[in-house]
Write a structure and sequence with these properties.
With 246 residues, the chain is mainly alpha-helical. The protein is built from nine helices and three strands; from the N terminus they run ααααααβββααα. The structure holds manganese (II) ion.
Length: 246
């Protein structure tokens, strides 16, 4: 991999599919400060540290939930993705009847790696000084108004999709390159209902582990809190990079 430039990495990742396209970023995220531990790499994926301290998003996101969510849940997906990659290699080496395991292990890879990619984006989707509207003259601000009608309409769309996810999943703002526009998608679990090629710009985790300690069954209260701390800088930066991938 070291023979490839970062530009080539992004380009080849875009061909694989948008849900994974920005996963290439994860290995470059280690310089971020803040809370969280970084487990030693035991495969291609590592747990990135949080870009802020555990208590920095209070009162919207409580420290205990943030710590458990990052250190236990997100860490579990990193471990699961690395395990799936190792298992796939073992199956290829063994051959024979072992190849029957490809379907199940590929499914494990999709679940865990999509979980890793979305959590990495979820942490970056929030900031202590976030919220409000994106700058009206920013690329993100202009495209949100063009494609949703207004920033309020976008927020309502994201909140409704998040509230309507059945069971565990996500609401995700994406840039869809074929139509050259933004959309809000849902993800069931982590990996289902995605669209190949669509590039995630903002991710809202609505699994119960994201909010239950503080908000119990009031998912919509948690979603309202998330809207108060959206990191628009992340959305705008990722949109700029998505546009450069073409
Ligand atoms: Mn989660």
């Amino acid at each position: 991999m070291t023979n490839f430039s970062r530009r080539e990495l992004l380009g080849s990742a875009a061909l694989v599919g948008g849900w994974l396209a920005f996963g290439q970023d994860i290995g470059f995220a280690q310089q971020a400060g803040g809370g969280g531990t970084t487990a030693p790499a035991d495969g291609p994926y590592t747990l990135p540290p949080l870009p802020y301290g555990y208590a920095d998003l209070e009162p919207h996101i409580d420290a205990q939930t943030l710590k458990l969510h990052h250190d236990v849940h997100h860490a579990g997906y990193v471990k699961g993705a690395n395990a799936a990659v190792a298992e796939l290699e073992a199956i290829r080496r063994a051959g024979g009847d072992q190849v029957k395991q490809f379907r199940a292990v590929t499914g494990n890879l999709a679940f865990n790696l999509a979980g890793h990619v979305l959590h990495d984006l979820f942490w970056k989707s929030m900031a202590r000084d976030g919220g409000g509207d994106p700058p009206a003259d920013s690329a993100a601000g202009r495209m949100l108004v063009r494609d949703f009608g207004s920033i309020d309409a976008f927020r309502a769309n994201l909140a409704a999709v998040g509230a309507q996810v059945q069971g565990s999943g996500w609401a995700v703002l994406v840039y869809e390159p074929l139509a050259e526009r933004m959309m809000v998608l849902q993800a069931e679990k982590h990996e289902n209902c995605g669209v190949w090629g669509a590039i995630p710009l903002l991710a809202l985790d609505v699994w119960e582990h994201a909010y239950y300690l503080k908000y119990q069954n009031k998912r919509t209260d948690f979603i309202s809190a998330f809207l108060q701390i959206i990191n628009w800088k992340t959305v705008d930066e990722r949109l700029h990079r998505a546009l450069q991938l073409k």
